[in-house]
Amino acid sequence: MRDLDEALDQLERTARTANAPLDDVRAQVLAAAAAEESPRRSRRTARWFLPVAVAAAAALVVGVVVTRPDGAPQPGTTAQAQPGTDAATTTPSQPKVSLLSAKQVLDDAAAAINTVDPVLAPGQYRYIAEHAWYSRGQMFGVSQENPDQTIKGWTYLKETARETWIPQDQSQDWLEKRSWLPGVKWLGGSVPQSEAPEPQAMDTDTGERRGKCGNFFPESRGTTQCGDPSDWNHPEFYVGLPRDPQAIVEYLRTTTAHRGSTPPVMFHFGVEILRAGLMPADLRAGWYRALATLDGVKVYDEAATLDGRTGIAIGLEDEQERRDLIVDPATGDFIGERSVAGPKPSGAWIPPGTVTGFSSITTKVVNGIGQTG
């Protein structure tokens, strides 16, 4: 419970820091709550649901920033995704549930995976590029003394990107580039946009960092284990995972037990691991089939486009949010993911159906650190 205590303590400190990343802290709280069973999430902040167990801690927050602070430099080979594209539209609408079966789509995508994962030669790097838009803004007005107050604040959609190079010899330097891209879109607020400052980049939103074994922040993380099997940002994590779909479902259920193991939580967790961009093809097939069996999974968009790539959006909704994974059914490629406001969003100013975040993921093998093709 030490990790949970530390995360809760950080959340309380965040309430006194106007520029602190609340979403990141919430993610740490939720991750710590499931730490006994869950793999580690070292650098890629997940978008977690806020459980009742930490609601009291969240009620302490007054005037804190709500953010997803893990953007990175824009890949040179990735097209700009604008909120007006099919997958990225922020205009609220009634959910358009397809007549297609989510199970059939994911089964077909799994069957279409016929690629063989490349084996890196000495000197080569696995290149992972994420181009994303995430919600950033502020929430305030709720205190421990007055928990029934209405949350106030505002939200923008902000463009970010990240590139990571993982060497064939993982004990050598990894490279990560992050940048704060120009795109920004107003999503809404309890105040006019003219009174809501646009989000500003924090230190961790930009820059180029190198670290052996992927340890880009040694000051905060200490020594990183090379080939850490508990960290899904390391290829070794995937070696020990089951390939059978039902066994994968049981793994997701066990891993999320501290958060209730509900279908939305399990689906969200499954999408987060896909988003790391390291899942091998043989595991991805079973992963799709496992997610397809969760109660409530539906096809929400038959032509969702991210950065010029079109696939089918399959999602699972709870009251606050719907999480979609976007897959190319013809190839089985994971294109990316998005989050959509549910019937009762956490920010009352966000209309249900509004896209509140999305990211596209591309991977390839390159011949040198810093190369993109």
TrEMBL record:
Origin superkingdom: Bacteria
Q: Where is the composition biased (Polar residues)?
A: 75-94
Q: Which ranges does the record mark as transmembrane?
A: 48-66
InterPro entries (alphabetical): CU044_5270-like (IPR047789)
Record region (Disordered)? 73-94, 188-209
Q: What are the protein's UniProt keywords?
A: Membrane, Transmembrane, Transmembrane helix
Task: Fetch the NCBIfam families from UniProt.
Answer: CU044_5270_fam (NF038083)
Name of the protein this chain belongs to: Putative membrane protein
**Protein source organism:** Saccharothrix espanaensis (strain ATCC 51144 / DSM 44229 / JCM 9112 / NBRC 15066 / NRRL 15764)
